Amino acid sequence: MTAKLFSIFLTLFLILGLFSATSANTRTYEDARGDYALELPSPKWRVVKLNGITHSRTEFINGKQSAVLLRIRRVYPAASPSDLVHRQQSWDSLFLSGYMIRKDQFFEGRLSGTKYSYEYVKGGIPMAGLIYHLQGDDGFIYRLQFTGPQNRMWELLEQMDFIAGSFRTGMS
Length: 172
Hints:
Layout: H1 2-25, E1 27-30, E2 36-40, E3 45-51, E4 56-62, E5 68-75, H2 81-95, E6 100-108, E7 112-122, E8 125-135, E9 141-149, H3 150-155, H4 157-166, E10 168-169
Antiparallel strand pairs: 1-2, 2-10, 3-4, 4-5, 5-9, 6-7, 7-8, 8-9
């Protein structure tokens, strides 16, 4: 009986330790305009500020060589998340070489919507994309688009789901 209790205690200790280690590595990013906030699960995710002609925007990068990129866009709610997925797929099939849809499914985190993945070829390199269309509390739909080399993308799938699951509108 003592060995069984010790085993249970050790298992709980390891689970709590792993949770604490994961929590210690996460950090919150809050958009300067107050549109959204999200959690970044690893220090390997870097924030990059880009200054454009009309406005600046923020993107996120994981890695240096063979980097995975996250772009966030706020889309006016002229359609449902699933309608936006179908429009995006039609657009991508015209402009991405070797375009192939992998999966289209419902996604639920702090915000719900749709998620789909796809593959394509860029400069002879197999690439992949994963797009979440999430219905914001503010009435807008947010597109979280991850792109990068196929092998890196699928290695980071759990982290991408974590980021999308933590995404929230406003600073609440």
